[in-house]
Amino acid sequence: MASKLSLFLGNALRSSTSTSLPSIGRMVPPLKNLCTTSEADADAGSSSSSTTTVSAEDQKGSGTDLIFAKLYPAKKHTLKTDVIHFLEGCNLSTEDIKVEYNRDYNPIAMTLQFSSHSAFDAAVRAVVRKGRLYRLEKVFTVNSDQWDLMESFNGKVVLLQGLPINASMEDIDRFLNGCSITDIRTFVRPGFPDPTKSALVRFPTIHEAMNAFRIKNHGFILNNPIGMQVLQ
């Protein structure tokens, strides 16, 4: 009887041991899977880091990446800051915008300098997204050297139109009394039935120019109404 009991207990113990070992083995992940997961994470991290670096470099741009474009239509009283706000996020400053005028100082177009292809593409998307109020076209006839030669008034020059032909410098000085001025240049253009006289007045700062425009616009010189325009 005792020998049968011992035999029964031995068989039970061996059975318990053999059934528990496989479950322990299933709890341990294969070594190969662990290595694969680690390598995949490392590759993903490397790829993410590389993408971020390229994006940062593209945003920064370089001298050879400069893109020039024209923005139409250029309106008479549109400021450079208006364009910067319209194309917000395109990395533009007032130094990146120059306005082209005809001989009568009516604006023709705005020439823009973008720091990279991605900045130009962002501007195109902004124009489309905001209802195509402007037309933006890339130009290939402008390079960095030509850009430097393009005239820019930088918002510090005000055009006075409608001056009487006999208006003198003293008359213009009286009209601009209280304003800080650095230079005045008058010119006469042929007109019908009479020639027209205008003046370019330069101010030391943009603030001074805008202040003169707000206070003096539509004033009078020798009973002639004077129109003023801040040149960009």
Automatic annotation (TrEMBL):
Under InterPro entries, the record lists: Nucleotide-bd_a/b_plait_sf (IPR012677), RBD_domain_sf (IPR035979)
Annotated Gene Ontology cellular components are: ribosome
UniProt-annotated stretches for the region Disordered: 39-58
Molecular function terms in GO for this entry? nucleic acid binding
User: Keywords, A to Z?
Assistant: Ribonucleoprotein, Ribosomal protein
Compositionally biased spans, kind Low complexity: 39-56
List the protein's name: Ribosomal protein S24e family protein
